[in-house]
């Protein structure tokens, strides 16, 4: 009948459509399962830096550090290119033959600074994750900012650059050694012979240190060539490149420290260490150089090389060695340290420049070499105070 026929047609259509719908639905379910299984597999094979199980703040911080890398590298290249224009090969060779200043700087950087970090860790009773960040920063070599600060305070630029390059090379051995020595005391549980698991996961980024070393040496060599080939142009490059590079570096440091989420939510003890540690480093380097009777030029240079350390290497090690949940407790310290080492360094530069401007004319020939310093302090009273032509002299007629 005409009423039954359309019903049969509709039933046939339903039978035809139902398998297709079920098939499509089954495919979609399988795709979701496949996606979930791949995500689960990624989470199970989780590597450091993977965004699996990361919070929004952690992803933001990761992208922030990734975006800062390229302008930071370009700024470092510009600064070291400018610093290369100050290098005198004869003076550099003299430092190689008599490396007393270099030896003092190495002792300060890889001897005193890790020890100071360890003492601060004990004094403030830090937990192992935060303590590792403090010690790791203390074991790092001198950074590029030390070269700029030495230049602005009329330091020994040949010694400054020499120390930066050599300390970066020596860091490949001294950093693991210091971390091994001082992390032996970080134990877990009642068994004091077991080393803290956080300390055992630290990986020294030899590749990153090698890249940093190349980024130091190549622009320095180019700067030396420019200074020998075009002396007048090199002076312009020195002033302009140093100023522009330092300003960009300061802006990047301040911006990163302000935008990095969680940096200022760190423990107050960690913030206090980040403020006082650079000042202790500057003071230690300067005092030790004075005790060992180095020239004032070298004293200022060694001080900046000791206190201004490479935060770039420290942050790279932390990112390569620890998972995001650990980085929350560690990454704040190098950000704080970098910011305050720049601020304190600029304060010292300002004090020196003010002293230079307002000092008396008789102090203008303040010594810059050890030999002249020895003569200055070793001369007799007659040499210090020569007779004045206008002084009254007794004569027989008087």
Give your account of this protein's structure:
The chain is mainly alpha-helical and 398 residues long. 76% of the residues lie in helices and 0% in strands. The chain has helices at 4-44, 56-84, 89-97, 100-124, 128-139, 144-152, 157-183, 197-200, 206-229, 231-259, 268-291, 296-307, 311-321, 324-330, 332-358, 370-378, 381-384. The longest helix is centred in the first third of the chain and has 41 residues, at 4-44. The protein is globular and about 55 Å long. Mean pLDDT is 74; it is low at 35-49, 187-195 and 364-398.
List keywords for this structure.
398 residues, mainly alpha, 17 helices, globular
Strand content: under 5%
- What is the succession of H and E elements? HHHHHHHHHHHHHHHHH
Q: Please tally the β strands and state the result.
A: 0
Compute the separation of the termini in Å.
Answer: 160 Å
Structural class: mainly alpha
Largest sheet: none
Unreliable segments (pLDDT under 50, ≥5 consecutive)? 35-49, 187-195, 364-398
What is the tally of helical segments?
17
Q: Helical amount among residues, as a percent range?
A: over 70%
The pLDDT mean sits at: 74
Assembly category: single chain
Give the overall shape: globular
User: Radius of gyration in whole Å, from Cα?
Assistant: 31 Å
Task: Quickly describe the structure.
76% of the residues lie in helices and 0% in strands. It contains 17 helices and no strands. It has helices at 4-44, 56-84, 89-97, 100-124, 128-139, 144-152, 157-183, 197-200, 206-229, 231-259, 268-291, 296-307, 311-321, 324-330, 332-358, 370-378, 381-384.
